[in-house]
Amino acid sequence: MDYEKTGNFIARLRGEQGLTQKALADRIGVTDKAVSKWENGRGFPDVGVLEILSKELGVSVTELMNGERLDLEKPEKTAAQADSAVLETLRYVKQMGRRTVGVIVIIIGACLCLAPMVMAGAGSSFAILILGILVILGGVFMTSNKTFGISRIAYEFISLGAIIAVIILELLPNGVVLWWAVSTGELNSTFYSYFDPTPFGMAHFSPLITAGLTVVSAVLTTIALIVNNKHHKLRNALFICLTVTAAISVCPVLFGFKYVTPIGVFITAMLVVSTISRAAANAKK
Q: Measuring CA to CA, how many Å separate 45 from each of 63, 94, 156, 204?
């Protein structure tokens, strides 16, 4: 969708009707700044505004989206223009969905970066800060339109490789830590693997759930590679599964930084890498 072309089209039609940006904005219920943004190619009217705007400017929605009037003398060209408008709309919706997820990821990363400043504890504070920076970078990547020329299959393998790395880390015996009070003011720690049910039995649920979802993600990613590009629902379900897994893996920080281990930080980082790679693979045709 060519924002600049549509913006010039809106500006020309507005001028033909002798309307100022403010007058047009008042008629369709938006601000003059919104109209200015559209005409400068820095944005596009919301779906709820398109029909009203098209009526005020005396054109169809398809013409508005294409940034030009339809050639009624050539039906085949008109149909092609209409198809192009529909396809561009679908791409726009998909792009906006990806950007929304990216913004959410950036917010999560910012919260991780701020956590060491507002919570007591230390040990893994620096690791949490680094993880937050990585998450922010991942969110920035998701909000961009670039995939740096890497093929979809390559992204698939990057995602799977990161998941395999996570499973290996989860099998290590010092990924989860529990603290026990042995006397007044004295605590001792005991370490477990993510697959050990002991922490789960002590109400520390996230490690075992993370491990289980990681295995599920590995299986689904393998299936996605086997069926190639045939099942979009599977790929979307896999992205959701990875996103949830990454979010759950961060939960130990809710108990305090002393419950966060370096291995746990690397697990979350690898899950973020896998999720971003999956998003990039899904965005590829």
A: 13, 16, 35, 47
Q: Which residues of the chain have pLDDT under 70?
A: 1-2, 47-48, 70-102, 105, 112, 115-129, 131, 138, 141-151, 183-185, 228-231, 284-285
DSSP letter string, 91-123: HHHHHHHHHHHHHHHHHHHHHHHHHHHHS---T
Give dist(CA 151, CA 281) in Å, integer: 8
Could you tell me if 242 and 217 are in contact, meaning their C-beta atoms sit under 8 angstroms apart? yes
- Determine the straight-line distance between the first and last CA of the chain, rounded to whole angstroms: 17
Give just the sign of the alpha carbon dihedral 137, 273, 113, 95. Answer: positive
Which secondary structure element, helix H or strand E, spans residue 181, and what is its range? strand 176-183
- Integer CA distances (angstroms), 18 to 13, 69, 256, in order: 9, 19, 63
pLDDT at 207: 95
pTM: predicted TM-score of the whole model, two decimal places: 0.56
Q: What angle do CA 35, 29, 97 make, to 5 degrees?
A: 70
pLDDT value for 248: 94
pLDDT attached to residue 83: 47
User: No. of H helices and E strands in the chain?
Assistant: 12, 2
Position 100 scores a pLDDT of: 67
185 three-class SS: coil
**Cα distances (Å, whole numbers) of residue 26 to 34, 64, 93:** 11, 19, 27
For tokens 């198809």, name the residue.
83
Helix (H) or strand (E) holding 177: strand 176-183
Short-list 150, 137, 61, 149, CA closest to 105: 137
